[in-house]
């Protein structure tokens, strides 16, 4: 079995257990305590000065510079890579789309929330100026005042708290920029990371959609989550 960069099987270089690693499926084990990482200069969001933040021992970063920006055609190739990463394909009924098709989709889903009857709005998640994922508002019903959200990060940036920050920012932006009253999220029952994230930002589990997704030839149960305006949890960022 392959050892993590920290030298211990099933552990990453920061000393955290590697979820999904074969070692983490067996008996319980503890990773050696991680060394505190070096101090890293980071610009805090919304601050006009440069501040210095510490990476925390659990891999999270204080005041990471996460931004949601409008998609450009050049982001299509990144989106294509993220969609084809193992966890995305494992938990989501992903349509096979080429970078050209995704580029066309990006041009139709510009994040101008005041744009009339648009059904999909998409933002690229930037971390320190680098594209690391995407968040979206889809299936908007302007009459019923609800819509669905989606989110997706490059696997290299998982488990650092970035997903939660980006989704919090998405929710804040949707409620500030529209009169939508309710957001929904549908999540494969085994997708623990997504379930933890959505509950952390305030969504409540409202139901189980039995065998709702067809992924890789198998039917998968899906949890349905909902969030009403005013129920969102805000997070430090
Ligand atoms: C879902 C996703 C966006 C989470 O992003 P992330 O940046 O890793 O999430 P965060 O670091 O903010 O973590 C959120 C919570 O999930 C937990 N978590 C993250 N990855 C995990 C994993 N692989 N297994 C178990 N828990 C995990 C974190 O510990 C955290 O829980 P906590 O609040 O109790 O500490 C990311 O896993 C992803 O892009 N997955 C592939 C696409 C996908 O499935 N999107 C969801 C469609 S519904």
TrEMBL record:
Keywords associated with the record: Acyltransferase, Transferase
EC number, UniProt record: 2.3.1.-
UniProt-recorded Gene Ontology molecular function terms: acyltransferase activity, transferring groups other than amino-acyl groups
All copies of domain N-acetyltransferase, residue ranges: 66-226
Family as reported in the entry's similarity comment: Belongs to the acetyltransferase family. RimJ subfamily.
This protein's name: Putative ribosomal N-acetyltransferase YdaF
Organism: Tsuneonella dongtanensis
Gene responsible for this protein: ydaF_2
């Amino acid at each position: 079995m392959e050892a993590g960069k920290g030298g211990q099987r099933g552990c990453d270089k920061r000393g955290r257990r590697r979820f999904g690693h074969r070692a983490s499926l067996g008996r319980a084990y503890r990773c050696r305590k991680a060394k505190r990482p070096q101090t890293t200069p980071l610009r805090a969001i919304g601050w006009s000065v440069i501040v210095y933040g510490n990476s925390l021992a659990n891999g999270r970063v204080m005041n990471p510079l996460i931004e949601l920006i409008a998609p450009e055609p050049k982001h299509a190739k990144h989106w294509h890579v993220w969609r084809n990463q193992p966890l995305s394909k494992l938990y989501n009924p992903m349509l096979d789309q080429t970078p050209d098709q995704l580029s066309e989709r990006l041009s139709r889903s510009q994040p101008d929330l005041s744009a009339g009857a648009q059904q999909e709005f998409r933002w690229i998640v930037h971390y320190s100026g680098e594209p690391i994922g995407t968040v979206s508002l889809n299936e908007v019903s302007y009459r019923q005042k609800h819509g669905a959200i989606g989110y997706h990060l490059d696997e290299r940036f998982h488990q650092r708290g970035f997903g939660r920050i980006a989704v919090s920012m998405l929710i804040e932006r949707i409620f500030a920029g529209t009169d939508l009253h309710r957001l929904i999220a549908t999540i494969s029952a085994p997708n623990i990371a997504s379930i933890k994230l959505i509950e952390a930002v305030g969504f409540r589990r409202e139901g189980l959609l039995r065998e709702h997704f067809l992924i890789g030839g198998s039917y998968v149960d899906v949890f349905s989550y909902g969030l009403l305006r005013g129920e969102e949890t805000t997070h430090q960022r």
